[in-house]
Amino acid sequence: MSIKDTLRSRMDRTSPLFRVIYALYKRLVRLLYLFCRAYTPMDEHLVLFEAFQGRQYTCSPKAMYQQMMADPAYKDYHFIWALTEDAEKRNHLANARTKVVRYNSRAHKLACAKAKYIVTNSMPLGFFRPRQGQHLVETWHGTPLKRLGCDIAVDSNSVNTADEIHARYRERVAKITDFLSPSDFYTEKLTSAFDLSGAGRHVRMIQQGYPRNDFLSTFSEADVHAIKARLGVPEGKKVILYAPTFRDNQKLDKAYSYSFTLEMDFDHLLKRLGEEYVVLFRPHYFIADHFDFQRYQGKVINVAGVDDVNEVYVISDMLITDYSSVFFDYAILKRPILLFMYDLELYQGKLRDFYIDLNQLPFPIVLEQEELEQQIIDAFHGDFSFDEGYRRFNETYTPMDDGNASARVLHELIPNP
User: Fold this and answer.
1) Residue (of 189, 188, 179) closest to 210 by Cα position
2) Range picked from 178-192, 240-254, 286-300 for highest mean pLDDT
3) Residue 90: is it exposed, middle or buried by C-beta count within 10 angstroms (0-12/13-18/19+)?
4) Ranges of CATH 3.40.50.11820 domains, the chain
5) DSSP class of 124
6) Torsion angle, CA of 364/369/370/374, rounded to 10 degrees?
7) What's the pLDDT score for residue 208?
8) CATH for 40-214+403-413?
9) Of 71, 95, 57, whose CA–CA distance to 310 is shortest?
């Protein structure tokens, strides 16, 4: 366990003592990094990838990496992936052009100093400062429904105040050189959330689609069968994906992590639906370690450990979510989507609020489980169509997600590889 993780595990992050010690630790790490950077030449053909603080091999960094590996135009490039200790993830990356380092290790910090391009889908490490000519490419990880960063107006978070969140986003955006975007809406909202206009320098917005969604337009039936077999999802079942987000006001005691109160009654749901259904449960990665569904004997499958959410998208026949960004991406598949917003009044009024008027969404909003179950049954028995409202939604929020976003993004990022 790193010094940073030890501090977080043994001390409440909101305590004054933690703040003092952690501030001193961050300053020391930053000084050591700057010293290292000063004596490390930049490698013009090195790309460093990371996703969700090293937790996963996934999202737009994965899609861009795979595109570079497959495209002869980038044959002279080599790559580093920063991952936490996980042999299975490392096995995906066993090739001569790719090296894996432990996230936040000395080797990772050296890679940050050396790589011409750093591609991440979450906040860059606190110590990092870009050098002249270096690119920090922020892909982020979803089109937002709920307000983010500098657009959060209330102190509803159990870990940080709104002012602290604003300061953290502004501090981190000072390091970003390039931001990816799939739509005009996304560009507008992320510019506001990260206060890009106030960054004091130009941040390039590459609006060429979302690389992570390429697979949703290019997968095959063979892919679907292979994924189902690997995850133990029976063929011939109606597959429902339930993917709720975390709640800012639900936090584990004395830990820098969130909890989640499960409001979905799986027992009642399965009894109502019958044997022909199976549920895939995928909580937000903040809260993915707090569930055990062995007693459901394969009728509810916890897919939180599947790195690439696209895999559970393509094998499911319906998505149930709440305020998560997942429904923007899932809509590319043109399949039924239900929004189970059982705590809508609390969430909208006291936690986050939204960028979009919910009445403009083409998906049913459900507040009670009984209504949810009926909506599921209706959708699977003919009461669903890809209608005009659904089509307009896709034209607004995923207009460039056609399976070629990775190639376009890389062409703009590295025009003459």
Assistant:
1) 179
2) 178-192
3) middle
4) 40-214+403-413
5) P
6) 40
7) 98
8) 3.40.50.11820
9) 57
Of 62, 40, 36, nearest to 49 (Cα)?
62
For the record, the structure tokens of 230 come out as 């690997």
Report which secondary-structure segment, H or E, holds 336: none
C-alpha 77/C-alpha 249 separation (Å) is 44
Residues shown for the chain = 417
Mean pLDDT of 398-406: 97
Are 131 and 111 in contact, with CB atoms under 8 Å apart?
no
CATH of domain 221-397: 3.40.50.12580
pLDDT band at 163 (very low <50, low <70, confident <90, very high): confident
Q: How many alpha carbons lie under 13 Å from residue 27 in its C-beta half-sphere?
A: 6
Tokens 């489980």 sit on residue: 369
Name the segment(s) of the chain with CATH classification 3.40.50.12580.
221-397
pLDDT digit string, tens, across residues 209-263:
999 999 999 999 999 999 999 999 999 999 999 999 866 544 544 444 445 567 8
User: Which burial class, exposed, middle or buried, applies to 389 when counting CB atoms under 10 A from its CB (0-12, 13-18, 19+)?
Assistant: exposed
Tokens of 331: 């809509």
pTM of the model: 0.89
Angle at 350 between CA 12 and CA 371, to 5 degrees: 115
Q: State the Cα–Cα distance between residues 203 and 138, nearest whole angstrom.
A: 10
